[in-house]
Design goal:
Number of helices: 3
Structural class: alpha+beta
Number of strands: 6
Shape: globular
Strand order of the largest sheet: 5-4-3-1-2-6
Helix content: 10-25%
Largest sheet: 6 strands, mixed
Number of domains: 1
Length: about 110
Protein backbone atom coordinates (compact mmCIF):
# COMPACT_ATOMS: atom_id res chain seq x y z
CA UNK A 1 0.00 0.00 0.00
CA UNK A 2 1.29 3.47 -0.88
CA UNK A 3 0.81 6.40 1.47
CA UNK A 4 1.65 10.04 0.82
CA UNK A 5 4.05 11.61 3.31
CA UNK A 6 4.62 15.37 3.61
CA UNK A 7 7.25 17.02 5.79
CA UNK A 8 6.55 20.50 7.17
CA UNK A 9 9.31 22.41 8.94
CA UNK A 10 8.19 24.86 11.62
CA UNK A 11 9.95 28.21 11.74
CA UNK A 12 7.56 29.84 14.20
CA UNK A 13 8.93 31.56 17.28
CA UNK A 14 10.07 29.08 19.97
CA UNK A 15 8.95 26.11 17.85
CA UNK A 16 11.48 23.85 19.60
CA UNK A 17 9.06 23.81 22.54
CA UNK A 18 6.49 22.06 20.35
CA UNK A 19 3.76 22.82 17.85
CA UNK A 20 1.48 24.05 20.64
CA UNK A 21 3.54 25.66 23.38
CA UNK A 22 3.13 28.15 26.20
CA UNK A 23 5.90 30.44 24.95
CA UNK A 24 4.73 31.21 21.43
CA UNK A 25 1.77 29.38 19.97
CA UNK A 26 2.17 30.66 16.41
CA UNK A 27 3.55 27.85 14.25
CA UNK A 28 4.77 28.76 10.76
CA UNK A 29 4.99 25.67 8.57
CA UNK A 30 6.64 25.25 5.20
CA UNK A 31 6.05 22.01 3.32
CA UNK A 32 9.56 21.10 2.19
CA UNK A 33 9.39 17.47 1.11
CA UNK A 34 6.71 15.08 -0.15
CA UNK A 35 6.88 11.51 -1.38
CA UNK A 36 5.01 8.21 -1.64
CA UNK A 37 6.00 5.49 0.81
CA UNK A 38 5.29 1.82 0.19
CA UNK A 39 4.20 0.22 3.44
CA UNK A 40 2.65 -3.23 3.99
CA UNK A 41 0.30 -1.96 6.72
CA UNK A 42 -0.53 1.72 7.23
CA UNK A 43 0.69 1.83 10.84
CA UNK A 44 0.89 5.59 11.37
CA UNK A 45 3.12 5.43 14.45
CA UNK A 46 5.61 3.14 12.72
CA UNK A 47 5.70 5.52 9.72
CA UNK A 48 6.26 8.52 12.01
CA UNK A 49 9.10 6.76 13.82
CA UNK A 50 10.66 5.85 10.46
CA UNK A 51 10.35 9.50 9.32
CA UNK A 52 12.06 10.77 12.47
CA UNK A 53 15.01 8.45 11.97
CA UNK A 54 15.17 8.91 8.19
CA UNK A 55 15.20 12.72 8.35
CA UNK A 56 17.69 12.90 11.20
CA UNK A 57 20.26 10.14 10.71
CA UNK A 58 18.90 8.05 7.85
CA UNK A 59 20.81 7.20 4.70
CA UNK A 60 18.02 5.93 2.46
CA UNK A 61 16.85 7.43 -0.82
CA UNK A 62 14.39 9.78 0.89
CA UNK A 63 17.01 11.05 3.34
CA UNK A 64 19.42 11.72 0.47
CA UNK A 65 16.79 13.65 -1.51
CA UNK A 66 15.91 15.63 1.63
CA UNK A 67 19.54 16.51 2.37
CA UNK A 68 20.16 17.56 -1.23
CA UNK A 69 17.72 20.39 -0.53
CA UNK A 70 19.99 21.49 2.37
CA UNK A 71 17.17 21.12 4.90
CA UNK A 72 17.67 20.90 8.65
CA UNK A 73 16.82 17.75 10.58
CA UNK A 74 13.23 16.95 11.50
CA UNK A 75 12.71 18.26 15.03
CA UNK A 76 10.29 19.19 17.79
CA UNK A 77 7.53 21.46 16.49
CA UNK A 78 7.72 20.13 12.93
CA UNK A 79 4.78 18.31 11.34
CA UNK A 80 4.49 15.16 9.24
CA UNK A 81 1.35 14.17 7.40
CA UNK A 82 0.68 10.50 6.75
CA UNK A 83 -2.10 10.28 4.24
CA UNK A 84 -4.87 12.48 5.61
CA UNK A 85 -3.63 12.65 9.22
CA UNK A 86 -1.25 15.31 10.55
CA UNK A 87 1.15 14.79 13.45
CA UNK A 88 3.35 17.25 15.34
CA UNK A 89 6.72 16.08 16.62
CA UNK A 90 7.03 16.60 20.37
CA UNK A 91 10.00 16.03 22.66
CA UNK A 92 9.01 12.44 23.45
CA UNK A 93 6.22 11.51 21.04
CA UNK A 94 3.94 12.60 18.22
CA UNK A 95 0.60 14.35 18.79
CA UNK A 96 -2.22 14.61 16.28
CA UNK A 97 -3.16 18.04 15.01
CA UNK A 98 -6.35 18.98 13.23
CA UNK A 99 -6.64 19.82 9.55
CA UNK A 100 -7.62 23.34 10.60
CA UNK A 101 -4.48 23.73 12.75
CA UNK A 102 -2.35 22.44 9.86
CA UNK A 103 -3.93 24.72 7.28
CA UNK A 104 -3.75 27.77 9.56
CA UNK A 105 -0.03 27.19 10.20
CA UNK A 106 1.06 26.67 6.58
CA UNK A 107 2.83 29.73 5.25
CA UNK A 108 4.51 28.14 2.21
CA UNK A 109 4.41 24.87 0.27
CA UNK A 110 7.80 24.40 -1.35
CA UNK A 111 8.20 20.71 -2.13
Amino acid sequence: MKVTIKIYLNDGEDHFYGFRNKFANNPELTMVHAFELETPVPNVHAVLQWCFVEFNIGSGEHAKAYREKMLRSLSVGDVVTVGESAWACESVSWVPITTEELNNAIIWQDA
